[in-house]
Design goal:
Elements lengths: L7 H12 L6 E4 L9 H16 L3 E6 L9 H13 L6 E4 L4 H13 L3 E4 L3 H7 L17 H13 L8 E4 L14 E5 L13 E3 L1 H12 L3 E5 L6 H10 L7 E5 L3 E2 L6 H9 L14 H7 L3 H11 L7 E2 L1 H13 L4 E2 L1 E2 L2 E6 L7 E7 L9 E7 L1 E5 L19 E4 L4 E9 L5 E9 L16 E2 L1 E3 L4 E8 L27 E8 L11 E4 L3 E5 L10 E7 L7
Parallel strand pairs: 1-2, 2-3, 8-9, 10-11, 12-25, 14-20, 18-21, 23-27
Antiparallel strand pairs: 4-5, 5-6, 6-7, 13-24, 14-17, 15-16, 17-22, 18-19, 19-20, 23-24, 25-26, 26-27
Helix pairs in contact: 2-11, 7-8, 11-12
The protein binds adenosine-5'-triphosphate and magnesium ion (MG) (2 copies).
Adenosine-5'-triphosphate (ATP) binds next to α2 and β8.
């Protein structure tokens, strides 16, 4: 889908073009390269790229890299890869840090106009004097420094004469403003750190709230789309553009974030999961990162269908991950070949099948998509079935294999259980069955019916495989990013979020490549893992199970 559903931003853009206020729509996706992108970012990416595209405009990828301490090229590269993988192409690639000189000059302009001053108060003192929602703030004793003194001090801040935190540059607006963001916000701070792009050239860095509008204006962004928590920042955004006399005037619009229940997305929390070894990296298939979803086996199409469904509005509400699962199934349904895998093998010997003989059986690759054709699967005297598909003493309504009962082997024959072989501990190690050659799948046999159909793989031809089964990382089904506290969230981590089992797949899957996707009959959708899979030794990630009571 290459458009957005009806939404308020689209209406605004339509108006702006009609009135001539805007000639070409320019949007940007502005991640800070301090972590990997997550599903929430996918929504922001989709909104920016799709909206601009709908109006023949353009979108920039801009790294908002104004905080040298947390940023890294590793993140820059992963972000580029993720945006491309989602299927979007940026028209221009920018780094906010390329504008540091211009930003500095605009700050100097503010000083010259008497609209900014150097403050010697500490961060704590500044916070104390800022006031509250009900109480106005108080002026800093340094607020009335002369323009000359401010110019001199700011130049010396840049020159590295002061230590971190010793001085800041503040906008001079109104300490009594009902909007706390307008109470002389800090716009520059001292940070002696090496920047991934500018190295040691700078030791003062602009604050996000000041830098962002300037970045937008420099690039000619027309519609600066961000999430709702920036709404209160909009007056300062507009103040910055006006007072720094930027020739091009961007406008900020806010939409509701995408949050998923049972999921944390903040980079700080995700980083804790990575750093403390709860997951095996930012791209662990349990992570809500784009790279985690990719490794899990989720496709860009499923993600885009999901964010389309989530829509663009100012409404707040967390989405049930089952909604995402629904779109994953919908997307994989017609494109994933349907094959058989046994995750917990139990050997079955078909005693009346000739020893040493193998026949090839015809199996359709996708019953809902005939275009995917057929394949041949081997069948012989020994096969594996799922351990849970056999019970020695079954309850009523158990229609799978038990002594004396007959079931259908998918794509093969009816088999009947005659004997159970146990080891010294009394555990079932093998069962003996007979098959009925008359009942061959596709032969049109109607002589009698069986209630259960089970899957299997040929024991001698089957390929050993590892299966990695996932449960949600966070156990609380009602919790989301906003309700899960950073200090306690590791207690919510599900100790059973990963289960590794070993079983078998059909021989045709021996050379499955990383990112190949399959439906395993009765189990769910699986994706060949990019990290652990080796040629001839496939490792499969559970993407999503088949069962869902969820209906849109
Ligand atoms: P986090 O708070 O999760 O660490 P962030 O907001 O700091 O992420 P940025 O790199 O600053 O991450 O985000 C880039 C863009 O993505 C911003 O415009 C931001 O509004 C948007 N964005 C981030 N999270 C979400 C979300 N959950 N839903 C929609 N948009 C989001
Ligand atoms: Mg951020
Ligand atoms: Mg944030």
């Amino acid at each position: 889908n290459n458009s957005t559903p009806p939404n308020f931003i689209k209406n605004i853009i339509t108006e702006d073009l009609k009135s001539g206020k805007v000639q070409t729509v320019v949007t940007r996706f502005p991640p800070e390269p301090n972590g990997y992108l997550h599903i929430g970012h996918a929504k922001a990416i989709w909104i920016n790229f799709t909206l601009a595209d709908e109006f023949g405009g353009r979108t920039h990828l801009r790294f908002d890299d104004t905080n040298p301490v947390k940023e890294d090229v590793e993140y820059v590269n992963s972000i580029k890869e993720d945006v491309k993988w989602l299927g979007f192409e940026w028209e221009e690639l920018h780094f906010a840090s390329d504008y540091f000189e211009e930003m500095y000059n605009r700050a100097v302009l503010l000083i010259k106009k008497g609209k900014a001053y150097v403050d010697d108060l500490s961060a704590d003192q500044i916070r104390e004097l800022r006031g509250t929602l009900t109480e106005p703030g108080q002026n800093s004793p340094y607020r009335d420094r002369s323009v000359e003194e401010n110019l001199d001090l700011f130049a010396r801040m840049r020159a590295g004469e002061f230590k971190d935190g010793e001085k800041v540059l503040r906008a001079k607006i109104d300490m009594a403003s009902p909007n706390i963001n307008l109470r002389d916000p800090v716009i520059y701070r001292i940070v002696h750190a090496t920047h991934h792009n500018t190295g040691d050239k700078w030791c003062i860095y602009p604050m996000y709230a000041f830098a962002h509008p300037l970045e937008d204006a420099i690039e000619g962004v027309t519609h600066s789309l961000c999430t709702l928590e920036f709404e209160e920042q909009r007056p300062f955004y507009d103040w910055t553009i006006a007072e720094t006399e930027m020739p091009k005037v961007p406008h900020q619009y806010e939409f509701g974030r995408l949050n998923l229940l049972q999921t944390v997305t903040s980079k700080r929390k995700l980083k804790m999961l990575v750093d403390e070894g709860y997951v095996d990296g930012w791209d662990d298939p349990r992570m809500p990162t784009i790279s985690g979803l990719r490794r899990r086996g989720v496709t860009p199409e499923a993600i885009k269908a999901f964010v389309y469904e989530a829509g663009i509005s100012k409404a707040y509400g967390s989405i049930d991950p089952k909604t995402l699962e629904h779109f994953i199934r919908e997307d994989l349904k017609l494109r994933a070949p349907r094959t058989m895998a046994v995750l917990d093998p139990l050997k079955v010997v078909i005693t009346n099948y000739p020893e040493g003989q193998t026949e090839m059986l015809e199996a359709e690759n996708n019953s809902e998509n005939p275009e995917m054709g057929n394949r041949q699967i081997p069948f012989s005297r020994e096969i594996y079935i799922e351990r849970e598909d056999f019970m020695e003493n079954p309850p009523s309504k158990y229609f799978r294999l038990f002594p004396g009962n007959e079931v259908r082997l998918k794509h093969a024959y009816f088999i009947k259980c005659n004997d159970v072989i146990k080891n010294a501990d009394g555990n079932v190690v093998e069962i003996h069955c007979t098959y009925d050659p008359e009942t061959k799948s596709g032969s049109g046999f109607t002589g009698r019916k069986v209630k259960g159909t089970i899957h299997w793989v040929d024991a001698s031809a089957a390929v050993p495989a590892e299966f990695r089964l996932y449960e949600p990382l966070i156990m609380d089904e009602e919790a989301d990013e906003d309700t899960i506290e950073e200090k306690s969230f590791l207690d919510l981590v599900n100790p059973n979020s990963l289960t590794v089992v070993h079983g078998f797949v059909e021989p045709g899957l021996k050379d499955a490549k990383p990112q190949d996707k399959f439906q395993f009959f009765r189990h769910g959708y699986f994706n060949v893992d990019t990290k652990y899979s080796e040629p001839g030794k496939p490792v499969f990630n559970l993407v999503v199970s088949l069962k869902s009571s969820f209906q849109l």
